[in-house]
Specification:
By secondary structure, the protein is an alpha+beta fold. It contains 5 helices and 19 strands. The strands form 3 sheets. It has a 10-stranded mixed beta sheet with strand order 18-9-10-12-8-13-16-15-14-19. Strand 2 and strand 3 form a beta hairpin. The longest helix has 13 residues, at 233-245. It is globular and about 65 Å long. The structure holds fe (ii) ion. Fe (ii) ion (FE2) binds at residues 168, 170, 225, 227, 276, 278.
């Protein structure tokens, strides 16, 4: 059986090279946990109360993708990245060799990893974890019915949309080149694509979506959005409609990005950041060298879709 599994799902690992394999866990604070519970459960996520905060899961998946705690304001508190167990000593040696100061885990963090700060001061963890990033391009559905059979449900019978996994996060940074350098040299992520010093997308070397984390320039760090993978464009539209029905109608979509190629709809959360329904993002297999490029922003933001809200890239975490 093990052998069969091995044949079906080969180990996704680039031999000999050191790099994190997954975006393992996010953590941020918000002033009102009840609002967060309503927003993320309406979005189709499983929200569990744990230790005074909320843990976020996707239906049918055992992995905890992140947690939300109560704080005076919305603030990105830390990001954990997953690594293979036998790579952890090598990461420790690399961090020491680069003379990066290790820090204690933030209060409340469950940790087995190495903690440090990125150039913006955000705590980062490299921890041992199961690979939660996909080992192959995620399936994409475009379901139809046979002639003579109605395909769409009535609007009162919309099925609930259930995201399959956390796809990526976009965070604000003061300095894009510095972020690319740090996340490349320390975590072993690779640049997928960028638009000058405005935005950059990075992937893992052990099989990863086009981006597991991306950076957008701002005057301060912060969380811009969490992206959740769904299997179809229909799910994106359905999710957006369900959120609008529940009072979360602000956002941006439906559209298609250029860098990453994913279809999207962003739903604005109660704190001015976003949760993204995403589908059919480009995938970078183990061993594939993605030809990263520097693209003019006006030609690489989105192929089609409505005009984005004016404050789409505004960092409300930096506002006084
Ligand atoms: Fe995204």
């Amino acid at each position: 059986m093990t052998q069969i599994r091995h044949l079906v799902r080969p180990m996704q690992r680039r031999p000999g090279e050191l790099g994190v394999h997954s975006l393992d866990r996010f953590n941020f604070s918000v002033p009102d946990l009840a609002q967060a519970q309503k927003f993320y459960s309406s979005f189709g996520l499983e929200v569990k109360e744990q230790g005074g905060g909320l843990e976020i899961y996707t239906s049918g998946h055992p992995h905890c993708w992140g947690s939300v705690v109560e704080g005076s304001r919305k603030k990105l508190r830390y990001i954990s990245f997953g690594a293979f167990e036998d790579d952890l000593p090598r990461f420790r040696a690399r961090v020491d060799q680069l003379r990066i100061t290790r820090i204690d885990p933030p209060v409340g963090a469950h940790s087995n990893g190495i903690w440090l700060r990125d150039p913006d001061g955000t705590p980062i963890e490299i921890r041992v974890a199961e690979k939660s990033s996909p080992n192959e391009k995620s399936s994409f559905e475009n379901l139809s019915t046979a002639p003579g059979v109605q395909s769409a449900p009535s609007s009162s019978k919309k099925p609930i949309v259930r995201p399959r996994r956390l796809a990526h996060m976009l965070v604000f940074t003061r300095d894009i080149p510095q972020a690319i350098k740090f996340y490349g040299e320390v975590l072993g992520l690779r640049l997928s694509d960028r638009s000058g010093d405005m935005i950059a997308f990075m992937h893992g070397i052990h099989g990863s979506d086009h981006h597991m984390i991306a950076f957008v320039k701002s005057e301060a760090p912060g969380l811009h959005h969490l992206s959740w993978d769904v299997p179809s464009i229909n799910d994106i539209g359905m999710g957006a409609m369900i959120m609008a029905d529940k009072g979360f109608s602000a956002g941006w979509g439906l559209g298609r990005h250029v860098l990453g190629s994913n279809y999207f709809h962003y739903v604005r959360d109660p704190w001015g950041s976003y949760a993204e329904y995403s589908s059919d993002i480009d995938y970078i297999p183990v061993g594939h060298e993605w030809p990263n490029g520097d693209h003019p922003p006006e030609d690489s933001f989105y192929v089609w879709g409505p005009v984005p809200p004016r404050d789409f890239a505004f960092n409300y975490e930096a506002a006084p």
